[in-house]
Amino acid sequence: YQKRVNRQKLRRALLAEVRTPQEAIESASRFDESDDVEVDHTVFPNAVYQKHIDDIGLLSDEEVEAVIKYYSTLEVARDQLRSERDHSGVKQFLTTVEYLVAVREDAEMELRKKLDGQGFIKAIRWREETRPVGQEQDQQPQAGQRDSAAESEVD
What is d(CA 148, CA 144) in angstroms, rounded to the nearest whole number? Predict the structure, then answer.
């Protein structure tokens, strides 16, 4: 039972981290060599992955492959951005980021597949669909309010 709980927590954490840089990655994929590329490599987080790398084996083979491919490509892009300051990495980064868009989507899809079957993604969709107009997406329920969508999650 505990292994299953840990696997679900790992999936949720990785999914959140994989989804975080979506806009930055897609924006960077629209650059070309003539653009003055100013992307901070820290907008591509990997702290969850680094902290739980020893637990990756809890995931399915498909998830492991997609997650490792994403984070490996992410690390290459981060390295290229670091060397971009002397413009040696710009062309390589622009090539890598196109691939990064695809592997990010693959990692998200694989993680979501398993979570969707457990009700997690349905709870997220429900929260988004029932959010009051004007309430920010990241806004948490106020003190004393219950988040019934989160409580209905199945591990």
Answer: 12
Cβ atoms within 10 A of the Cβ of 68, count? 16
Mean of the per-residue pLDDT values of the chain:
75
Q: Are 152 and 124 in contact (CB under 8 A)?
A: no
Alpha helix locations (H) across the chain?
2-19, 22-28, 47-51, 61-83, 90-116, 120-130, 148-151
Closest CA to 84 of 22, 36, 43: 36
Residues 46-90: pLDDT tens digits?
Answer: 999 999 999 999 999 999 999 999 999 999 888 887 775 555 556
* Joined tokens for residue 151: 């409580």
Let me know the angle formed at the C-alpha of 38 by 32 and 40, rounded to the nearest 5 degrees: 125
Per the confidence metrics, is the pTM higher than 0.70?
no
Structure tokens at 84: 């971009």
Distance of CA 119 to the CA centre of its chain: 19
